[in-house]
Amino acid sequence: MPANILVIEDEPAIQELLALNITQAGHNAIRALSVEIAQELLRSTLPDLILLDWMLPGMSGIEYARRLKSDSQTKAIPIIMLTARGDEYDKVRGLEVGADDYVTKPFSPRELNARIKAVLRRRAPQMTDDPIEIAGLMLDPTTHRVTGNSTNIDLGPTEFRLLHFFMSNAERVHTRSQLLDKVWGDRVFVEDRTVDVHIRRLRNALAVSNHQDLIQTVRGSGYRLSAKND
Ligand code: CA
Fold first, then answer.
1. What's this model's pTM, rounded to 2 decimal places?
2. Record: fold of 4-127
3. 105 contacts 82 by C-beta, under 8 angstroms
4. Distance 49 CA to ligand 1 centre (A)
């Protein structure tokens, strides 16, 4: 599943390079040349990750990182800081304000992509493309293929995203509104009942290989994927 990555960098040539890298890694790059533009973009949609330059005109990257991390709307978005400086003091400062990682310019595309992947895996496992297997149910994000004990399972796009999210966050209970946020996207106007409809479809599809009971209803709370029966 491609991630939406917001790149905040005031130098157009470097921004271009970063966006190219991100696109080649299979993600979507959203560009902002300044903190003001970034703020405007964040009003309409929240990205999955922010690449934030340390040296920006006006508000510095480190100040902006602190602000993003103290705002309840944006504090969960992982941040990778970009800087020309490589000294330990800056690195510590960046991590202290809540940045998740740190890349020093000039960066190699391979290093940058490895760090993006590591942060996404840690913070949003459903954004990486590693195959996941639970109790004989296998989901491959790259090919969009799902099999149950080697039998093909046909899923619609929403059921696929729902299953991907469940499998990436196995054993955890998710409320309907959390599922709407994570699977349908932020600030989308959908009724809670919609979740139940897609859960039913997902269970019907999984019944082909007898995996329907992995999707459990937790009374009064929501749903979870679990291989345990308790
Ligand atoms: Ca800069």
1. 0.63
2. Rossmann fold (3.40.50)
3. yes
4. 18
C-alpha 9 to ligand 1 mean position (Å): 6
Residue 192 CA, ligand 1 centroid: distance in Å: 43
Domain-wise residue ranges, the chain: 4-127, 132-225
Residue 87 CA, ligand 1 centroid: distance in Å: 17
Sequence-distant (≥ 6) Cβ neighbours of residue 220 within 8 angstroms: none
CATH architecture observed for domain 132-225 = Orthogonal Bundle (1.10)
Q: How far is the CA of 96 from the centre of ligand 1 (A)?
A: 21
Whose structure tokens read 């990555």? 5
Round to whole Å and give the CA distance between 155 and 42. Answer: 32
Ligand 1 centre to CA of 29 (Å) is: 17
Q: How far apart are the first and last CA of the chain?
A: 31
Tell me the pLDDT of the chain (230 aa) as tens digits. 688 999 999 999 999 999 999 999 989 999 999 999 999 999 888 899 999 998 898 888 989 999 999 998 888 899 999 987 666 667 777 777 888 888 888 888 888 999 998 888 877 766 777 899 999 999 998 888 999 999 999 999 889 999 999 998 889 999 998 888 788 865 456 777 889 999 999 999 999 999 999 999 999 899 999 998 76
Distances (CA, A) of 138 to 3, 122, 130, 143, 152: 21, 20, 11, 12, 10
Between the CA of 8 and the centroid of ligand 1 the distance, in Å, is 9
Ligand 1 midpoint to CA 55 (Å): 4
**CA of 64 relative to ligand 1 center, distance in Å:** 13
User: How far does the centroid of ligand 1 lie from the alpha carbon of residue 73, in Å?
Assistant: 25
